[in-house]
Amino acid sequence: VYGLKTPKGNSLLLSDRNNSTNWDVGVKLESMTSQAVELNSSPGIDSVEMRNEHGDYLRVTSKSGEGNSPIRGLESNVCGSIDLATRNGDATLSVEQGGGSLDITNKGNGTNRCTTDHTDESPGMVKIESWSRDINVFANRGNIFIEAKKKDPDTNSVIIEIMSNGKIGIHAASSIDIKCTDPVGVIHIESPASIDVKSGGSLNIQSDGDMNLKSGGNMNIQSDGAMNLKSAGELKQKSDSTVYINGSPNVHLNNG
Fold this sequence. Notes:
This protein is mainly beta. It has strands at 2-5, 11-15, 26-30, 36-41, 46-51, 57-61, 74-77. The chain contains no helices and seven strands.
């Protein structure tokens, strides 16, 4: 083991020690306040590491070592914030074809603070924002799932909301399914102006209970073909004014 050390405690250590009981080959540069840069070349620890006096670190690993460090990976663990920025270029985070999954997880709940450099009013939030252009989400070979997994007896407090200052378009090459799984759930469709429903084929509306249609103005039902009204019970027509039945050329009323 070879080294240099200043009177105030700054040191440079070069180690070739590799006997059977203690193998710590490497280079270590350490300041008087325990800030360090280490080049470790031992079987148990094979990495390049930079850390501060609090234990926050950035580590590039090589071979398999002790602990949970990845093999030939990049590992960082800090107590405070992480800020990454490019002033005049692109930023890319990519898992190449030999890799696995890309996970973004926020476990924050605001209870275990180790720094006081800022106050976060929304701990646990994941935010994606673009100031000037689109945000695109693509799945080239799989599906896209969006789910709010909050477990709350008040289901009204679990919300997935999509808002736009312009149009919202939903397009599918196959079918579009809208379903409420709660036994007492309701699907609301509301517009301050018109609601248009158009089908190139049949339009089927079915209810296991009552079906109510109400209009604040006139109600117009028109068919280019035959119009059939059939009821397993009574069929009632009532008007507070005149009832007009106009058949050209005939009107047939059958009893029985």
